[in-house]
Amino acid sequence: MAKTRQKKQQDFFKFIKWFWILFAVGILSVVLIFQLASWGVFGEMPTFERLENPETNLATEFISSDGVTLGKLYLNDNRTPVDYNELPQNLVDALVATEDARFFKHSGIDARGTLRAVAFLGTKGGASTISQQLSKLLFTKKPSGGLERLVQKVKEWVIATRLERQYTKEEIIAMYLNQYDFINNADGIRSAARIYFGKEPSELRTEESAVLVGMLKNSSLFNPIRREELVKNRRNTVLAQMAKYGYITESEKDSLQQTEMKINFSPESHREGLATYFRMYLQGWLNNWVEENPKPDGEKYNIYLDGLKVYTTVDSRMQRNAEEAVQEHMKNLQAEFFHQNTPKRNPTTPFLDISNGAIDTIMDRAMRNSERWRHYKREGLSEKEIEATFHEKTEMTVFDWNTDSYEKDTIMTPMDSIRYYKTFLRTAMMSMEPQTGHVKAWVGGIDYKHFQYDLVKQGSRQAGSLFKPFVYAAAIDQLRYSPCFTLPDNLYSIEAGKHGNMEAWRPKNSDGKYSGENMTLKSALANSVNTITAQLIDRVGPGSVVSLAKNMGITKDILAVPSIALGTPDVSVYEMVGAFGTYANQGVYVKPVMVTRIEDKNGTALYEYTPETKDVLSKEVAYAMINLLEGVTQYGSGARLRHTGAKDQTVYKEIITGYPYELNNPIAGKTGTTQNQSDGWFMGMVPNLVTGVWVGGEERSIHFSSITYGQGAAMALPIWALYMKKNYANQELGVSKEEFVAPEEMTINIDCSKQQEDEIDTEDDLDDLDF
Questions:
Q1: pLDDT for the residue 121
Q2: pLDDT of 760 above 50
Q3: pLDDT tens across 393-431, in order?
Q4: What is the full DSSP assignment across 545-589?
């Protein structure tokens, strides 16, 4: 009996011995496994430097002058990180309550959660902490099998503990939310908040934060765009977790769970969003900048991955006003254009006044310049094979003003689509602060997704009467004429050989009539009288006008012949806005500025702009020009800005959106209309804002048949008026309604009620001047 008892004791001690040996071996094995993992035996582990600077792709961000993100440049990752203090408390609470309730108590590994997960085989929740989830996102690849997943889990634990030593709890939360892919180009919490709710993370409401935290489980499964009901249920689960851990009350939970899920899907792509044309201009500008400004180590900045912050001059509020003004007017204008250019009324629609042969040439050129042609050319197809594809019907999505999205699905041949797109009138608009050159709004077309050619800076079109102020400015500057100087409205001829013109030049007035009476320069410019402009350029010479235009920012070559007085040169909206800004800025030309500063991802300044200015006109001459241009809006072609609703409302009721405008503050402006109404312009100025608008067809043969609708006052002026009314509705923008600032000493007479007796009014009097 004693032997039996002794044997049992020996067996028990042996069992205890081996139990502790195995336990110790187990513990040592686990420790060894973790140690081996930390040494990199199971694969590369991050170094201290990588923990401090995780390798993530960061999008370049374009920031408006009022602090709003206009858009981003990225390849695959639309990521812009935010600090912890930019996260709302409700988002942090939702995250901790749902993903890691003891986050602030453990050191990277939740022992209690791990034991629970092992004991219940994961049926009562997993054990992965936020730190582990971050380590998984940052440093490990997706495993291909069970063993690899086990090894990865070990590495995640090691990395999680390292993260906990290197970062605060708050930094880990921020890193995790910044790193997570919320799909639909929503990389990180900032992109997710903007894309799904149209707001910054700090503005998220509790129920909105719950949606985004719910997506952390599986963003593809819980996609708010595709599975609304599933996402709502997941949101409610998150809200329940918040109530469980005391972050919200039961009554708050019940109330929030009953709310509808209001997703404001605002995709952030290169072709959508605010200021698309401006952003694409900036992309080209940045490409040039990185070529000339390498990193300290000689490498080039990557504008898609290096997280640059580009601070722009554009004001997001004014930009939105500009885009809305363009959409409101162009939609109505296009409807009238379609009404006038039906195949019944115009068999060659949308083209006018050209032969079928000329139309074929235009269409063939468009076909060969298309991306479709280039694509098939790269694939090695012959020209005959490529051309055949343009006559095969195919499914496509095209632009359409009459839908909420401005798109419709249809079936047509690519050749028909080319003709279809040519029926649309195009536009360009730019707004600038003349004193600083800061560009405040930039609209390069009616819809970037379908019309990607930027007509603000890339495109140049004939200026028409918009060029006349250069002639008047040269005359006032060189001959000391005043706005009250008079010339006769008679048919005027400049003989062949004079000023380099090959043939005699005898321009007609637009209406073909001549009053024969003396007209002041102010009245002549206001009513765009060609005969007066012809006399002025004859007196100052075309060369003087070209020189002045060049000094005011016109870069294109201009042939110095008399006909430029009526606007034959091609100019861009960008150049004309800069030039007209000279008048509003007391004779000083300031080159338009789009970017004020560039920073790297750490906030280090890489670029600061330096203004480019040039003294072109005296203050007196500039103010005299302002006085001339005010006449245009007082009683000339721009006077409908001030109407309270007269005959124009009847004549243009189909296209003049928002009329009457009733803008009674001081406005200087000039309309421009080219031959056959191919181009309509309007330049409008108040003391601190100069804005230019152009409207026309892609081809010069695409235009209204009559000047009633085809003039600049009907095509372009309404966009300016709508834009300014929207600006004035927001007093925070500070757009001036004041008088233009006059020079302290003004020797040029601008008060035509006090006409000077010694005003020069004949060409013979020029001989008496001392130049």
A1: 42
A2: no
A3: 999 999 999 998 899 999 999 999 999 999 999 999 999
A4: HHHHHHHTT--S----SGGGGGT-SEE-HHHHHHHHHHHHTTTEE
The whole-number pLDDT of residue 640 equals: 82
| CA neighbor of 453 nearest in space, from 568, 545, 573, 535 | 573
The DSSP-derived string for 379-398 is TT--HHHHHHHTTS-EEEEE
Residue span(s) of the chain under CATH 3.40.710.10 come to 428-731+739-764
Q: What CATH number does the domain located at 428-731+739-764 have?
A: 3.40.710.10
3-state class of 73 per DSSP? strand
- Mean pLDDT score of the chain, rounded to an integer? 86
Q: What is the pLDDT of residue 753?
A: 76
Q: Please, which pLDDT band fits residue 762 given cuts at 50, 70 and 90?
A: very low
| Residue 149 confidence (pLDDT) above 60 | no
Contact between residue 690 and residue 435 where contact means Cβ atoms under 8 Å apart: no
The full DSSP string for 397-456 is: EEE-TTSTTSEEEEEE-HHHHHHHHHTS-EEEEEEE-TTT-BEEEEE-SS-TTT----TT
Rounded Cα distance between 237 and 232, Å, is: 9
Burial of residue 635 (number of CB atoms within 10 Å: 0-12, 13-18, 19+): middle
Distance CA 173, CA 607 (A): 32
| Assigned token pair, 327 | 């959409």
**Residue 311 contacts residue 609 (beta carbons within 8 Å):** no
Alpha-carbon radius of gyration of the chain = 35
Identify whether the C-beta of residue 270 lies closer than 8 Å to the C-beta of residue 279: yes
Which amino acid does the sequence have at 691? T
Residues of the chain with CATH 1.10.3810.10: 48-53+79-267
Q: Which CATH architecture has domain 48-53+79-267?
A: Orthogonal Bundle (1.10)
Q: Would you state the structure tokens that stand for residue 666, as one six-digit string?
A: 């001081």
User: Nearest-5° angle of CA 688, CA 689, CA 694?
Assistant: 165
pLDDT for residue 109:
72
Report the C-alpha gap between 181 and 521 in whole angstroms. 64
Average pLDDT for 637-654: 64
Beta bridge partners of 394: 412
**Residue 510, class by beta-carbon neighbours within 10 Å (0-12 exposed, 13-18 middle, 19+ buried)?**
middle
DSSP state of 79: B
Give the CA angle between residues 433, 312, 611 to the nearest 5°.
55
| Residue type present at position 166 | Q
Which pLDDT value is given to residue 451? 94
Give helix then strand counts, H and E, for the chain: 27, 18
pLDDT tens digits along 170-226: 988 998 998 898 988 888 999 999 999 989 999 999 999 999 999 999 999 999 998
Sheet (strand 595-599) strand order? 69-73, 60-63, 309-312, 595-599, 605-608
Pairing verdict, β 439-443 and 426-432: antiparallel
Which of these, 264, 108, 104, 90, lies nearest to 186 by C-alpha position? 264
Neighbours of 26 (CB within 10 A): 10
Backbone angles phi, psi at 13, to 5 degrees: -65, -35
By the 8 A CB rule, do 761 and 536 touch? Answer: no
Which pLDDT value is given to residue 48? 45
Give residue 311's pLDDT band: very low, low, confident or very high (50, 70, 90). Answer: very high
Please name the residues in contact with 586: beta carbons below 8 A apart, sequence gap of 6 or more: 619, 622, 623, 741, 743
pLDDT number for residue 133:
85
Tens digits of per-residue pLDDT, 440-453? 999 999 999 999 99
Place 21 in a pLDDT band, splitting at 50, 70 and 90. low
